[in-house]
Amino acid sequence: MMNPDSFEDDEGSFYNGELIRQPRQTWTLEEKLELLDTHPMFTRRCPECEMPYPKDYRPVVHWDCPFCDWKDDTV
Ligand SMILES: [Zn+2]
Asked: How far is the CA of 72 from the centre of ligand 1 (A)?
């Protein structure tokens, strides 16, 4: 039998397994790194529809998706 109260996952969060229960405080380093990992400025693809951005697509500030309604609001 597993008592949920005594269940500890020191490993933290499983992003793939969807078990994410980090205490919500402020942006953690992990979240910032995740932003770097998902932002089109770095991935060159939309985090929403995952369409790759055109090669010559070089927005100055906002990397709004040209394919869906995703808006870059990080700036
Ligand atoms: Zn998109």
From this structure: 10
